[in-house]
UniProtKB/TrEMBL annotation:
Organism per entry: Campylobacter jejuni
One GO biological process term: aspartate metabolic process
GO MF terms, alphabetically ordered: aspartate ammonia-lyase activity
Phylogenetic placement of the source organism: Bacteria, Pseudomonadati, Campylobacterota, Epsilonproteobacteria, Campylobacterales
Enzyme class per UniProt: lyase
UniProt-recorded name of the protein: Aspartate ammonia-lyase
Amino acid sequence: YQYLHPNDHVNLSQSTNDAYPTALHLALHDYLSDLAKAMEHLKKAYERKAEEFKDVLKMGRTQLQDAVPMTLGREFKTFAVMMGEDIQRVLEARKLILEI
Protein backbone atom coordinates (compact mmCIF):
# COMPACT_ATOMS: atom_id res chain seq x y z
CA TYR A 1 0.00 0.00 0.00
CA GLN A 2 3.03 2.27 -0.07
CA TYR A 3 2.40 3.49 -3.63
CA LEU A 4 -1.30 2.90 -4.13
CA HIS A 5 -3.60 2.66 -1.14
CA PRO A 6 -7.24 1.66 -1.80
CA ASN A 7 -8.67 4.36 0.46
CA ASP A 8 -6.11 7.13 0.09
CA HIS A 9 -5.61 6.94 -3.68
CA VAL A 10 -8.14 4.77 -5.51
CA ASN A 11 -11.23 6.05 -3.67
CA LEU A 12 -9.89 9.56 -3.11
CA SER A 13 -12.82 11.85 -2.26
CA GLN A 14 -15.36 9.09 -2.95
CA SER A 15 -17.74 7.48 -0.54
CA THR A 16 -18.98 3.91 -0.85
CA ASN A 17 -22.04 5.43 -2.54
CA ASP A 18 -19.65 6.51 -5.31
CA ALA A 19 -17.35 3.50 -5.40
CA TYR A 20 -19.98 0.74 -5.61
CA PRO A 21 -21.83 2.11 -8.67
CA THR A 22 -18.50 2.80 -10.37
CA ALA A 23 -17.32 -0.76 -9.77
CA LEU A 24 -20.66 -2.10 -11.02
CA HIS A 25 -20.43 -0.01 -14.20
CA LEU A 26 -16.91 -1.26 -14.91
CA ALA A 27 -17.89 -4.89 -14.31
CA LEU A 28 -20.98 -4.56 -16.51
CA HIS A 29 -18.91 -2.95 -19.26
CA ASP A 30 -16.83 -6.13 -19.52
CA TYR A 31 -19.85 -8.41 -19.16
CA LEU A 32 -21.81 -6.65 -21.90
CA SER A 33 -18.97 -7.26 -24.33
CA ASP A 34 -19.16 -11.00 -23.63
CA LEU A 35 -22.95 -10.88 -23.88
CA ALA A 36 -22.82 -9.17 -27.28
CA LYS A 37 -20.42 -11.84 -28.57
CA ALA A 38 -22.71 -14.63 -27.36
CA MET A 39 -25.71 -12.92 -28.93
CA GLU A 40 -23.81 -12.66 -32.22
CA HIS A 41 -23.25 -16.44 -32.16
CA LEU A 42 -26.98 -16.96 -31.57
CA LYS A 43 -27.82 -14.58 -34.43
CA LYS A 44 -25.58 -16.57 -36.78
CA ALA A 45 -27.25 -19.81 -35.65
CA TYR A 46 -30.67 -18.30 -36.45
CA GLU A 47 -29.37 -17.28 -39.88
CA ARG A 48 -28.13 -20.82 -40.55
CA LYS A 49 -31.51 -22.24 -39.53
CA ALA A 50 -33.27 -19.68 -41.73
CA GLU A 51 -31.35 -21.01 -44.72
CA GLU A 52 -31.86 -24.64 -43.67
CA PHE A 53 -35.64 -24.28 -43.32
CA LYS A 54 -36.30 -21.74 -46.08
CA ASP A 55 -38.66 -24.14 -47.89
CA VAL A 56 -40.52 -25.60 -44.89
CA LEU A 57 -44.06 -24.21 -44.75
CA LYS A 58 -45.81 -23.62 -41.45
CA MET A 59 -48.93 -21.89 -40.29
CA GLY A 60 -48.37 -18.31 -39.24
CA ARG A 61 -49.86 -17.24 -35.93
CA THR A 62 -51.31 -13.92 -34.82
CA GLN A 63 -52.52 -13.58 -31.24
CA LEU A 64 -52.79 -17.37 -30.93
CA GLN A 65 -54.96 -17.54 -34.05
CA ASP A 66 -54.06 -19.16 -37.37
CA ALA A 67 -52.82 -16.63 -39.91
CA VAL A 68 -51.17 -16.55 -43.34
CA PRO A 69 -48.83 -19.50 -43.97
CA MET A 70 -45.12 -18.71 -43.90
CA THR A 71 -41.87 -20.61 -44.03
CA LEU A 72 -40.02 -21.72 -40.95
CA GLY A 73 -36.96 -20.12 -42.53
CA ARG A 74 -38.66 -16.72 -42.57
CA GLU A 75 -39.48 -17.08 -38.89
CA PHE A 76 -35.84 -17.88 -38.06
CA LYS A 77 -34.72 -14.94 -40.22
CA THR A 78 -37.00 -12.69 -38.17
CA PHE A 79 -35.39 -14.00 -34.99
CA ALA A 80 -31.97 -13.17 -36.47
CA VAL A 81 -33.03 -9.62 -37.37
CA MET A 82 -34.45 -9.01 -33.90
CA MET A 83 -31.28 -10.41 -32.32
CA GLY A 84 -29.22 -8.01 -34.44
CA GLU A 85 -31.29 -5.09 -33.16
CA ASP A 86 -30.83 -6.29 -29.58
CA ILE A 87 -27.06 -6.57 -30.10
CA GLN A 88 -27.00 -2.92 -31.15
CA ARG A 89 -28.92 -1.98 -28.00
CA VAL A 90 -26.46 -3.90 -25.81
CA LEU A 91 -23.49 -2.21 -27.50
CA GLU A 92 -25.10 1.21 -27.03
CA ALA A 93 -25.74 0.44 -23.35
CA ARG A 94 -22.10 -0.60 -23.07
CA LYS A 95 -21.05 2.86 -24.27
CA LEU A 96 -23.49 4.67 -22.00
CA ILE A 97 -22.45 2.72 -18.91
CA LEU A 98 -19.01 4.32 -19.07
CA GLU A 99 -20.54 7.52 -17.71
CA ILE A 100 -19.57 7.55 -14.07
